[in-house]
Design brief:
The complex is a heterodimer of chains A (193) and B (436). Chain A has helices at residues 3-6, 15-34, 38-58, 62-84, 89-94, 102-126, 140-148, 168-189; strands at residues 151-152, 161-162. Chain A is mainly α. Chain A folds into two domains: 12-94, Four Helix Bundle (Hemerythrin (Met), subunit A), CATH 1.20.120; 139-193, no CATH class. In chain A, a hairpin with an 8-residue loop joins strand 1 (151-152) and strand 2 (161-162). With 436 residues, chain B is an all-alpha fold. Chain B has one domain. Chain B contains 17 helices and no strands. Chain B has helices at 2-11, 21-24, 27-59, 75-85, 96-112, 131-140, 142-152, 156-187, 199-209, 220-235, 247-250, 260-285, 300-307, 309-326, 335-364, 369-400, 406-434. Chain B is globular and about 65 Å long. The relative contact order of chain B is 0.12. Classes of the chains: A mainly alpha (193), B mainly alpha (436). Chains A and B meet through helix 1, helix 3 and helix 4 of A and helix 1, helix 6, helix 7 and helix 8 of B.
């Protein structure tokens, strides 16, 4: 490459941005679960989602970052706000919190922490070194293959069929989580269904 | 340190550079572009404020602002000062933190999208390979500002306005997305066959295929464009879709409780969002930075003629200003105003002269810095001219059409626009597969 064109080129994705985004995500995540006012929680959740999408950008996954903003921050959170605003905030904030499953939550978050710690300490053994693909070369097809697996053509089935991908289960679990969140919002609005 | 930044400054002016500063990793030039864009948008918003009031007044056979400065030219500046000095009232029962932060959300969402708007092949802060996706996503965050403002005011009218706006923006986003999708499909219909989401890539695809997407697969491109043109008015809450601030029903809608600087932030955000959606329309369907007929009227002679356009436009503006200075009443009261108008005309004339000089100087040597400047001015000029047409249309709509009723608005959004845009999307795909 031409040295003139490259002059002053430096990686923008520095560790400062990582710590900034990660800190923002954690801080706003804490706000989501500690605020009594549901609207404040929702706004904090939007900040969390935006900082996570920034982290995706740093991982050279611009498409996932864009979809995160469009689907979660722009679409779903607006609908959530729309619903929450119809709730009588005064009454809800004085009510006792109705979930008593914090031990389960603690267990789940400890397990997640263990996974992260394992990935952090033994990452080199778990993940193979692969050549870094530039953002221009990454494409949506790779993401789809990761999620749903490849189309495998056989003699019995010449049109091909989807093999279940490595991450399909995790993807479906995430969708289920979203469904639970929606149900929670509905229950908060309407006590008698 | 200083030398390093000088190097970074000069290296980007090299004529061999063909990427945006963001892609070249040149932070200094990216920062310069950001400042230029921010200042440019602020100036355009001031001008739009004046033009809108004048144009609306003339539509209704009134004079509009005439008192502050000649023909009210200083009115927006006077208004800006008034808004800055006004008391910033926060209602007692309002949610103070959210109330104070709401206008900033809208403003941030409106201004963030400007980093991918392609004013030219290198005249953008950066180019992402998810460009249009990023623009749609971030501009959809603008609704959060309106919703939180309406809720935090803790008052009936703002809350109704906020709920209206969230329902309206979410429903029109669907039709908008379908229309955008059909334009993105068109980018993949060339010999190479690779589609793109990048804003610069979309304009380059039109350049490559030799046709603006508004004319491609006529009338499919045109219908998709029309759907987008309608949906973008609804997205920016402008008349005839300005139900969130319908003053005859909701006093001022979501910003009823706002005053002073915070209110003006809403206005700034609204105009910035109007500019942003207009630039999406220009980029996707009207060929972005391309001048008219780049294929038919080729050659250095035509290049030169078209590069005179920016200078001639500003020359015409200067001439109009001179004429109106000369036509002022000859009463002593108007002496200062007449002098001010003449100085203003002279300044515009100087700018026109400068643009003409650059156009002539850039013609001689293709590799010179003057040629690079001339190219850049051409690109930005044609882009902004197309955007200006849209901005005038926004005023025209407001003067012409009465406001929709809310149920009519929803009916149009879901029962008319969405089916049509879905049909256009499917037909575009079919035609694109069958035709070439």
């Amino acid at each position: 490459m031409n040295p003139v064109l490259n002059a002053g080129a430096a990686p923008i994705a520095t560790s400062f941005f990582f710590y900034f985004l990660a800190g923002a995500a954690i801080l706003s995540g804490l706000l989501v679960i500690t605020r009594r006012n549901a609207v404040h929680s929702a706004l904090a959740l939007i900040v969390t989602l935006l900082s996570v999408s920034g982290l995706y950008l740093m991982l050279y996954a611009p498409f996932v970052a864009g979809v995160q903003i469009i689907v979660y921050a722009g679409g779903i959170m607006v609908l959530f706000l729309f619903v929450i605003m119809l709730v009588n905030i005064e009454r809800v904030s004085k009510e006792r919190q109705f979930n008593r499953i914090w031990p389960v939550g603690l267990l789940a978050s400890c397990a997640l922490l263990a996974v992260f710690l394992a990935a952090f300490t033994k990452g080199k053994d778990l993940f193979h070194d692969r050549p870094i693909t530039l953002p221009e070369d990454s494409n949506t097809q790779q993401v789809a293959t990761m999620l749903y697996g490849e189309v495998v053509k056989t003699i019995q089935n010449p049109k091909g069929q989807y093999m279940i991908g490595q991450y399909t289960f995790a993807f479906e679990i995430a969708s289920l989580l979203l469904l639970v969140a929606i149900l929670g919002a509905v229950i908060m609005t309407k006590k008698k269904i | 340190m200083l030398r390093g930044s000088m190097n970074a400054l000069m290296s980007y002016l090299d004529p061999r550079v063909t990427v945006t500063p963001g892609q070249a990793g040149n932070e200094l030039w990216a920062l310069i572009y950001v400042f230029v864009i921010f200042a440019g948008v602020a100036v355009i918003v001031l001008c739009m404020n004046w033009i809108e009031r004048k144009a609306l007044a003339h539509f209704q056979i009134r004079l509009g602002p005439m008192r502050v400065g000649p023909h009210g030219l200083l009115q927006p500046i006077a208004d800006a000062f008034k808004l800055m000095l006004k008391e910033d009232i926060v209602p007692d029962e309002a949610d103070e933190v959210v109330f104070r932060f709401a206008p900033v959300i809208g403003l941030l969402a409106a201004f963030t999208v400007y980093i991918v708007i392609p004013f030219g092949p290198t005249q953008a802060v950066t180019d992402m390979n998810i460009g249009i996706l990023f623009m749609l996503g971030v501009s959809s965050l603008g609704v959060l500002g309106i919703v939180t403002a309406g809720w935090a005011s803790n008052s009936h009218y703002p809350l109704i306005g906020a709920l209206r706006s969230s329902a309206q923006m979410v429903s029109y986003e669907v039709a908008m997305g379908m229309a955008v999708l059909s334009a993105i499909l068109m980018t993949s219909m060339n010999a190479a066959g690779t589609g793109t989401l990048s804003m610069i890539g979309i304009v380059q695809a039109q350049q490559l295929q030799g046709i603006w997407f508004i004319f491609k697969f006529f009338p499919l491109g045109f219908i998709a464009f029309a759907i987008f043109a309608i949906a973008m008015v609804a997205e920016t809450n402008r008349a005839p879709f300005d139900l969130p601030e319908a003053e005859s029903e909701l006093t001022a809608g979501f910003h009823t409780e706002y005053s002073g600087l915070r209110w003006s932030l809403f206005m700034l955000g609204e105009y910035a969002a109007m500019l942003a959606v207009s630039s999406i329309a220009v980029t996707l369907w009207l060929g972005g930075w391309m001048r008219p007929f780049p294929n038919l009227l080729q050659g250095p002679a035509w290049e030169f003629i078209f590069s005179l356009f920016p200078g001639l436009t500003f020359g015409a503006l200067a001439a109009i200003t001179f004429i109106s200075a000369a036509r002022m009443p000859s009463h002593a009261f108007f002496r200062i105003q007449r002098a001010g108008m003449a100085i203003f005309a002279a300044l515009i004339g100087l700018l026109a002269l400068l643009l003409l000089v650059i156009a002539v100087a850039g013609r001689a040597n293709d590799a010179s810095i003057a040629a690079r400047f001339r190219e850049g001015i051409d690109y930005v000029y044609w882009f902004m001219l197309k955007v200006a047409v849209f901005m005038y249309m926004f005023i025209w709509y407001r003067a012409t059409w009465p406001r929709y009723r809310f149920d009519q608005l929803m009916k149009v959004g879901w029962k008319v626009m969405l089916p049509i845009s879905l049909g256009v999307l499917i037909l575009t795909a079919i035609v694109g597969v069958l035709l070439p």
